[in-house]
Amino acid sequence: MTTRTQPWQGIHVATALAFNDDGSVDHASFGDHVAWLAENGCDGVCPNGSLGEYQTLTAEERAKVVETAVAASPEGFTVMPGVAAYGADESRRWAEQARDAGAASVLALPPNTFKADDDTVVAHYREVAKAGLPVVAYNNPYDTKVDLVPSLLARLHEEGLIVAVKEFTGDVRRAYEIAELAPELDLLVGSDDVLLELGLAGAVGWIAGYPNAIPQSTVELYKLATSGVAEDIMAALPIYRDLHPLLRWDSKPEFVQSIKLSMDLAGRKGGACRQPRLPLPAELAARITADTRAVLAKGYK
Q1: 118 touches 145 (CB < 8 A)
Q2: Residue 166 annotated as catalytic
Q3: What start and end residues bound the annotated signal peptide (predicted)?
């Protein structure tokens, strides 16, 4: 397994965010959750991502989430906040806030209000990089309509603007082209349901959803999938098959509600989402409940 030598490597959990009954952010519960993830073998957290419902937070809430994550993190456990925003200036300001709060790196989407061309994307990352923290690019063309194709990632890396990419397209073939065009750019698994495939392809990190509910088992799976040892890959396969009915929900539109439901069933505080996300339809909730209980019944935790 590749040794974690940089703060953006290893398993960073895209943390779900709990709310109080009145809809306010439950910062105490969130801090406890960060500490619990550290205790259970994860390497860091990514607060203020989509799983953390950052789009629904006020500026004050969003800043405090980062501060809470940093305060709850033990030594060596790193925080990589999401800094997505409609404008490059705002993304830079969130990167500066993350820096000042003690974060080790940031996770940055490209412009997400229109289909930006390559020059616009590069200008955006130049602005975010001014904050001085290592920048991990987040490629999610489904939501942003901007695809950070391997050639564009290579351009961003060559200019020194990004250190890694969270690859969320699900197209595992990209890993090899990225390695050819930008061999020093770190590849991070971006969706849970391609963990094994991208681990085999050389990923050195995972920005993960389902460790929110079952951290120990997913940490074990990550270590096996990225070791480069044939025996470990064979050991990973049955675990991957067992967990895949849950892992695939990380790349579905209902991923926030799904992971929060699995957290509730595993004894963690997932709870309700803020609007516009609504509760899961009964049939879908029943399916995720059954899949989660099946995984827990096999001893995964």
Answers
A1: no
A2: yes
A3: none
Annotated binding-site positions: 207
Residue 1 has pLDDT above 80, yes or no: no
Give the domain CATH number at 125: 3.20.20.70
Catalytic residue among 54, 166, 210, 222: 166
User: How many structural domains comprise the chain?
Assistant: 1
Give the span between the Cα atoms of 255 and 261, in whole angstroms.
Answer: 10
Q: CA 111 → CA 54, 125, 147, 210, distances in Å?
A: 16, 9, 10, 27
Q: Is residue 35 part of a domain?
A: yes
Tokens 């049955």 locate to 238
Q: Is 3 or 53 the better-scoring residue by pLDDT?
A: 53
The yes-or-no answer on residue 142 being catalytic is no
User: 177-196 in b/e burial notation, b at 16+ Cβ within 10 A?
Assistant: ebeebbeebbbbbbbbbbbb
Does the pTM of the predicted model rise above 0.85? yes
Q: Summarize the annotated binding site for pyruvate as residue ranges.
A: 207
